[in-house]
Amino acid sequence: MNIEKGLLIVLSGPSGVGKGTVRKSIFDDPSTDFKYSISMTTRKMRQGETDGLDYFFKSREEFEALIADDQFIEYAEYVGNYYGTPVQYVRDTMDKGYDVFLEIEVEGAKQVRKKFPEALFIFLAPPSLEHLKERLVGRGTESDEIIKNRILEARKEVEMMNLYDYVVVNDEVELAKARIQSIVEAEHLKRERVEARYRKMILEAKK
Ligand SMILES: Nc1ncnc2c1ncn2[C@@H]1O[C@H](COP(=O)(O)OP(=O)(O)OP(=O)(O)O)[C@@H](O)[C@H]1O
Ligand SMILES: Nc1nc2c(ncn2[C@@H]2O[C@H](COP(=O)(O)O)[C@@H](O)[C@H]2O)c(=O)[nH]1
Fold it and tell me: The Guanylate kinase-like domain covers which part of the protein (predicted)?
């Protein structure tokens, strides 16, 4: 435990479950004071997306050069494209004491778990696999082929949900948002209590 740094919050879940929708709702709430880490990807930009806001869009060559330069906390190849979390932003922001929020798929979350075992891992689950398919198809952003591959991935991802600290069902966006906010708040309270009790010992051990 590092008593000076912010909390790293990892939200995972299958494609189409509503991670982006719930995350936007959390960040639209003026009471939210954590920071969102914008990922890098080699995926093509969707209509309505903005470079530097939704993702930093990169070519495969650029992304691979960043991998070689150790610029990611984690990265994964997902349905034919790279996705990764830039290390610099996360470290700098946490060092300033802010909580940082990552929205990433499960292979990346496993890598984060190894590097930041003290992070908070939340899995966003659909009410059912049928709901998931309906949402993915309903979003209308992917071809039938890509939707098929994302659903195949989703089946594997759902199997991994027991590796997370919490599972939140996204039945309704506002409810999922409130559940995530409560989990983060409870986690802070728990850590503050531990820190208060052992502050002297932790500081001494850091010397
Ligand atoms: N609770 C919900 N009930 C019904 N529809 C929802 C709900 N949450 C999200 N959706 C819809 O599901 C679709 C997928 O949501 P979203 O794009 O947020 O998923 P995602 O998990 O971020 O997907 P990806 O991982 O592919 O980026 C969107 O059309 C969104 O409006
Ligand atoms: N391992 C990582 N996964 C990420 C990252 N940023 C996003 N993602 C996940 O990829 C899939 C597909 O996203 P989409 O925008 O193409 O629909 C989804 O599960 C995202 O959460 C990342 O930095 N690392």
Answer: 6-185
